[in-house]
């Protein structure tokens, strides 16, 4: 009897506790008393015991099975700078892999068993030929079908660099260089004619450079932002 109470004390699920109690009562009823014969229990009661025990295990086992097999279906809508949905974006996540295209956007199917320990998923999107990109964090919690709107913005983090030289290829010190539209950020070339400017554009995006120096003819030249250096040649007047 003490053993039964000890086992019961360890059960914290009400339905499981009730199932255990019924099974224990039937077992006690069939238990052989001291000095007597064991009470015969009809087979149907053993079936009842088995059914009750299984019923009691359902609340414990089912959540574990469901949790392991559950899938987060993360729906992503990508919006352009004009707040309109974009259909030609590339979409991927911090867990790797690209999303599958679905009506109205994209979808990630993520098994609950492999979600990040902090539940945070970061979704990325880009439209390379338009120099647009964006990211959005999603918290994977109780909702198995979260939806997120990801806003794309113009990439502006790149720089543009190069040298200003004369017709012989010698660098010109003190030439004033600027990016069209951002003349207030103009810089003077240093030794060797070198300059570096914020491009206000993405890597590979064309920007218009302007260079001038007293005694020379000013020049305008298009050049892609990024690590590939520009060479602007100024001719003497």
Describe, in plain words, how this protein is organized in 3D:
The protein is of the alpha+beta class. The protein folds into 3 domains: 2-69, no CATH class; 71-154, Immunoglobulin-like; 159-236, Immunoglobulin-like, CATH 2.60.40. The chain is built from 3 helices and 17 strands. The protein has helices at residues 2-9, 14-30, 43-69, and strands at residues 71-79, 90-93, 100-102, 105-111, 120-127, 132-139, 147-151, 153-154, 159-165, 176-179, 187-188, 194-198, 206-212, 216-217, 219-224, 230-233, 235-236. A 4-stranded mixed beta sheet has the order 3-4-1-7, with no helix packed on it. It has a 4-stranded antiparallel beta sheet with strand order 2-5-6-8, with no helix packed on it. The protein has a 4-stranded antiparallel beta sheet with strand order 11-10-13-15, with no helix packed on it. Helix 2 (14-30) runs antiparallel to helix 3 (43-69).
Helices and strands in order:
Elements: H1 2-9, H2 14-30, H3 43-69, E1 71-79, E2 90-93, E3 100-102, E4 105-111, E5 120-127, E6 132-139, E7 147-151, E8 153-154, E9 159-165, E10 176-179, E11 187-188, E12 194-198, E13 206-212, E14 216-217, E15 219-224, E16 230-233, E17 235-236
Parallel strand pairs: 1-7, 9-16
Antiparallel strand pairs: 1-4, 2-5, 3-4, 5-6, 6-8, 9-12, 10-11, 10-13, 13-15, 14-17
